């Protein structure tokens, strides 16, 4: 899914996050979290089919097209999205796993009105997601949940 094929021409809101599809970033409470392009493409594919089950094979075709990857790549992207969005697979608010089938975006998507200005007062953070390390994402989640905007 290249930028011309993306379903949204601009931002949309998912839970407390503003999704900047073109910038591969999520914005909330003064924080900016940059996503890898494939992670954003998984989110956009789920958003394009919000409320519907998106089969794993469909996600693989749409996101990785002519590249051979295993389902582990998809699992990794969904895992990163869940960490960033503070979502849990056993009690999903945003991304629901449909066993043996795929995933469903279960949170509503909201589109801002045209002409909404985006402020430049976003606090930028770098989030490194390491296997088996939830410390960084836990700290970011706690700060976002507390609404901290201190610089």
Report on this structure.
With 151 residues, the protein is an alpha+beta fold. It has a single domain (3-146), classed as Arc Repressor Mutant, subunit A (Orthogonal Bundle). Helices cover 31% and strands 21% of the residues. The protein has helices spanning 37-48, 56-64, 71-84, 135-146; strands spanning 11-14, 17-20, 25-28, 31-34, 53-55, 95-98, 102-105, 109-110, 123-124. The strands form two sheets. It has a six-stranded mixed β-sheet with strand order 8-1-2-3-4-9, with no helix packed on it. A three-stranded antiparallel β-sheet has the order 5-7-6. It starts with 10 loop residues before the first strand and ends in a 5-residue tail after the last helix. Residues 1-8 and 114-136 have low confidence and may be disordered.
Topology:
Layout: E1 11-14, E2 17-20, E3 25-28, E4 31-34, H1 37-48, E5 53-55, H2 56-64, H3 71-84, E6 95-98, E7 102-105, E8 109-110, E9 123-124, H4 135-146
Parallel strand pairs: 4-9
Antiparallel strand pairs: 1-2, 1-8, 2-3, 3-4, 5-7, 6-7
Helix pairs in contact: 1-2, 1-3
Key words describing this protein structure:
151 residues, alpha+beta, 3-stranded antiparallel beta sheet
Number of beta-strand segments: 9
* Element string (H = helix, E = strand): EEEEHEHHEEEEH
**Averaged pLDDT, please?**
78
Main beta-sheet strand count, sense and barrel state: 6 strands, mixed
Number of domains: 1
Helicity level:
25-40%
Shape: globular
CATH third-tier fold name: Arc Repressor Mutant, subunit A
Q: What is the CATH homologous superfamily assignment?
A: Winged helix-like DNA-binding domain superfamily/Winged helix DNA-binding domain
The low-confidence parts are 1-8, 114-136
**Spatial arrangement of strands, main beta sheet:** 8-1-2-3-4-9
The structure class reads: alpha+beta
Rg from Cα: 15 Å
Determine the N-to-C terminus distance.
35 Å
Number of continuous helical runs: 4
Give the C-level CATH assignment. Mainly Alpha
CATH architecture field? Orthogonal Bundle
Content of β-strand: 15-25%
């Amino acid at each position: 899914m290249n930028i011309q094929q993306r379903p949204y021409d601009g931002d949309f809101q998912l839970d407390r996050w503003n999704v900047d599809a073109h910038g591969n970033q999520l914005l909330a409470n003064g924080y900016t979290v940059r996503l890898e392009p494939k992670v954003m493409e998984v989110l956009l594919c789920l958003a394009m089919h919000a409320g519907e089950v998106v089969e794993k094979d469909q996600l693989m075709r749409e996101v990785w097209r002519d590249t051979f990857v295993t389902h582990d790549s998809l699992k990794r992207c969904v895992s990163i999205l869940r960490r960033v969005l503070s979502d849990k697979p056993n009690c999903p608010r945003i991304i629901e796993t449909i066993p043996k089938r795929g995933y469903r975006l279960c949170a509503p998507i909201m589109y801002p009105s045209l002409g909404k200005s985006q402020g430049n007062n976003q606090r930028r953070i770098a989030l490194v997601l390491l296997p088996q390390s939830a410390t960084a994402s836990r700290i970011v989640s706690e700060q976002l949940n507390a609404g901290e905007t201190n610089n």
